[in-house]
Design goal:
41% strand, Carbon monoxide dehydrogenase subunit G, 3 helices, Alpha-D-Glucose-1,6-Bisphosphate, Chain A, domain 4, single chain, Polyketide_cyclase/dehydratase, START-like_dom_sf, alpha+beta
Length: 162
Amino acid sequence: MKTISHSARVGASAETVWGVITDIDNCAEIFTEVVATETLSEGPYDVGFQWSETRMVFGKPLTSTMEVIECELEGRTRIRFDTEGITNYITISLGPIDEDTTSVTYEHYSEVGDVSGVKRLALQAARMLSGTLMSKAMNKMVATDLDEIATESRRRSAAAAS
């Protein structure tokens, strides 16, 4: 599947934006499609950190175990999760423009996971048949998540300034 990518200039520092994207305990308040999260790892957000996330997808709850596979403090994070035989990757990159503005790029990529035989062929066929629908849904999810990151980052930035 192709990479879906959206970028935005966010009116908040990289530190504030990083705080939003790593605030796993409050994901359900930040992201409208996330209904619950549960931390599965102890310690700070870093490589190996895991959590369970339940998100509404096509009107139904879908729970995935998310794992941080790359982490550069206030710079970039990459998350992997599996959903029904599909391995998904989210990469969020931050680039400070100035002390109050950050460039944020949010990317999603998926591939057929570690399955074989008939199941792999069935997954590939389903992806081909529903490719446009899934692509539109993922495009909307990435755009919405990025918008919600920007909104919460601006809110936190304004709260800190007052």
